[in-house]
Write a structure and sequence with these properties.
The complex is a heterodimer of chains A (242) and B (341).
Chain A lengths: L7 E10 L2 E11 L4 E5 L6 H8 L7 E6 L2 E2 L5 H6 L2 E4 L11 H10 L5 H14 L14 H14 L4 E5 L7 H14 L4 E5 L3 H7 L2 E6 L2 E7 H6 L1 H11 L3
Parallel strand pairs in A: 3-8, 3-9, 6-7, 7-8
Antiparallel strand pairs in A: 1-2, 1-4, 4-5, 9-10
Chain B lengths: L1 H4 L9 H20 L2 H27 L6 H19 L3 H24 L4 H20 L7 E2 L2 E2 L6 E2 L15 H22 L3 H11 L1 H7 L3 H27 L1 E2 L6 H14 L5 H19 L5 H15 L4 H15 L6
Antiparallel strand pairs in B: 1-2, 3-4
Helix pairs in contact in B: 2-7, 3-7, 3-10, 3-11, 3-12, 4-5, 4-10, 5-10, 7-10, 8-9, 8-10, 11-12, 11-13, 12-13
The chains are: A alpha/beta (242), B mainly alpha (341).
């Protein structure tokens, strides 16, 4: 396989809800091993974009190429099996089950037998989940539920990890830990992170893609993006980030 | 107690549960020695209907599919047994076929509704409509031209004279005791089997799908395969119930498919509590006895009273009877410093 070819690419990707284009002709390319940040105001189309990449929403038009193969119309489970993992904006977890059972279901998706327990133990140690292992996920705080969801994604050993607002609702300490985790995870997986927290992005970002009204406005380094007056106007400036 | 009987407990049942099962088994074995025939007949039909309730509580409680159509398979099971047994002059293979044929129909129906990604409420409506269509079709087969083999379908009069089950080692058909043991034993085995199914990967995965189908799909599980398998299994249990119903009463009728029957199954599960398997079984017995009692006191509107009971349960005990009792016990124990097992 050509190493330089994008691991994930979209061509003229579009999603319309009635007359509104949530995503409007997005051409996006992600290199293998990259750590990309997506930013943009609420309603810019970032979450819709993620949901199309994982098959949760079918695009109105355009193509999505995963390692060169078009995955438009492919079922979410098949995309998951091809190594794409996602943490959604609102945690998509099994609230009525324990943390341990959630992790078991995630680990079981890729392995059988004793390997399941080994994988669970490893992720529990890595994310320090032991204190909450026996608790029902629905009883946990938002930040903890996000950690559980991230753990479930990681335990599947994905090639591509999509993280939709992983630091939302987390304390400063948890945010810093999440940033470390993302950097660590990037050693084995290609990552795309949607986030509003500029401090978080500053810690992890290499290339930043700015979404605005369903389109890509700018794609550049973090420093250039925050310095860009157009970006500051539509998004960053309103947040008061310098 | 609550965890022990909960339908989403992936932990192996404790000795307490096994003790409970053993006590039930012993009670079942001993009962014909101490009871009269009429009680045995009453309990037998409760066990038969408890299987139908189990099929529903499994499908709704474990998998999250609210099918109003468990009576499709109940009716098909009964009619298949009646037609095959009367034609063949033997009963054992017709009994097995009466479970398998509805499962095949369940696989076809399930394929269309599950792979078609019909959403939950439409699935409920579609299954309800199909059971009513079956009722309508069977009711319209009164004429002499509606014959399968040498068996007349008889429309709304049903098929009388359905032979009792004859086991290979016995030349006579099952006695009242035998039917009692068969129905009770089967209900207990299916209950234990379903409870233990929760410990398997399949059981844990279907509970995961009930909890969050999107997440399970994103993890890489094709939820449709698991849901279809569960749907077919539930169809098999309902068909088993239908075949036993025919064995018990030596009679099948279109009422097996009707709205009353379909609604009753839902009532058993709501009253008993769909987060447990044993709850709907207990509720089947209670509702059945309550209906009989209402009949004996000549209250007239049995269905109306049952409807009121259902409303009461939905409003006052939304979790159902057994989970509410278990929850109350848990609260009481935690208040006096006891620890939840």
């Amino acid at each position: 396989m050509n190493v330089a070819a994008p691991i994930l690419e979209t061509r003229s990707l579009e999603k319309r809800f009635g007359g509104v284009a949530a995503v409007d002709g997005v051409n996006f390319a992600l290199s293998r091993g990259e750590l990309r940040c997506l930013i943009g105001p609420n309603g810019a189309g970032k979450s819709t974009f993620f949901k199309m990449l994982t098959g949760q929403i079918r695009p109105t038009r355009g193509r999505i190429l995963l390692e060169g193969q078009d995955i438009v119309g492919v079922e979410p489970y098949a995309i998951g099996r091809r190594g794409v993992g996602i943490k959604n904006q609102v945690p998509v977890v099994m609230n009525g089950l324990t943390v341990r059972e959630n992790l078991w279901l995630a680990a079981r998706a890729r392995r059988t037998g004793a390997a399941i327990g080994v994988a669970i133990d490893a992720i529990v140690e890595r994310l320090d989940l032991r204190p909450i292992l026996g608790r029902f996920v629905g009883e946990l705080a938002h930040g903890q539920r996000q950690w559980v969801e991230i753990a479930m994604v990681i335990v599947c050993e994905p090639n591509i990890v999509l993280l939709d607002e992983p630091a939302a609702g987390m304390s400063d300490e948890e945010t810093a830990r999440t940033a470390d985790l993302v950097l660590d995870l990037n050693k084995s997986a290609t990552i795309v992170v949607v986030e509003h927290d500029m401090q978080f992005i500053r810690q992890i970002a290499r290339t930043v893609t700015v979404f605005h009204r369903g389109r890509i406005l700018v794609e550049d380094s973090f420093q250039n993006v925050v310095a860009n007056p157009v970006v500051r106007d539509v998004y960053v400036g309103r947040q008061g980030v310098t | 107690m609550a965890r022990e009987f909960a339908a989403d407990a992936a932990t192996p049942p404790s000795w307490l549960w096994w003790l409970f099962v053993a006590a039930l088994a012993l009670a079942l074995i001993a009962m014909p020695k101490f009871t009269d025939v009429s009680l045995q007949l009453d309990l037998s039909i409760i066990f038969v209907l408890a299987l139908l309730a189990l099929s529903m509580s499994f499908l709704w409680g474990y998998v999250g599919i609210l099918s109003f159509g468990q009576t499709i398979f109940f009716g098909l099971g009964g009619y298949s047994y009646a037609i095959l047994a009367l034609n063949a002059g033997t009963t054992l293979w017709p009994f097995v076929a009466a479970i398998c044929l509805p499962m095949i129909f369940g696989a076809v129906l399930g394929y269309f509704v599950i792979y078609g990604r019909i959403n939950d409420i439409y699935l409920s409506v579609i299954t309800l409509v199909i059971t009513l269509i079956f009722e309508k079709i069977i009711r319209s087969t009164s004429g002499p031209e509606y014959v399968i083999g040498k068996v007349r379908l008889n429309g709304q009069n049903g098929i009388p004279g359905v032979p009792g089950l004859q086991l290979p080692w016995d030349s006579s058909t099952l006695s009242i005791d035998g039917v009692f043991y068969l129905a009770g034993g089967t209900a207990l085995l299916v209950y234990v089997g379903l409870r233990l199914l929760l410990l398997t990967s399949f059981g844990r995965i279907i509970v995961g799908i009930r909890e969050n189908e999107t997440r399970m799909e994103l993890l890489g599980y094709d939820s449709r395969v698991y849901k279809l398998a569960a749907f077919v299994l539930a169809a098999g249990i309902a068909a088993l119930s239908g075949a036993l119903y025919a064995v018990w009463g030596n009679f099948v009728a279109p009422e097996m498919f009707n709205l009353n029957q379909a609604a009753q199954v839902v009532i058993w599960v709501i009253v008993g509590g769909r987060s447990t398997l044993i709850g709907p079984v207990v509720a089947t017995g209670l509702v059945q006895y309550f209906s009989n009692w209402l009949g004996t006191v000549s209250i007239g509107q049995v269905t109306l009273v049952l409807g009121l009971v259902l409303l009461l349960f939905v409003l006052v005990f939304p979790r159902g009877l057994l989970p509410t009792i278990a929850w109350t016990f848990d609260k009481a124990f935690s208040k006096i410093g006891g620890r939840r097992s």
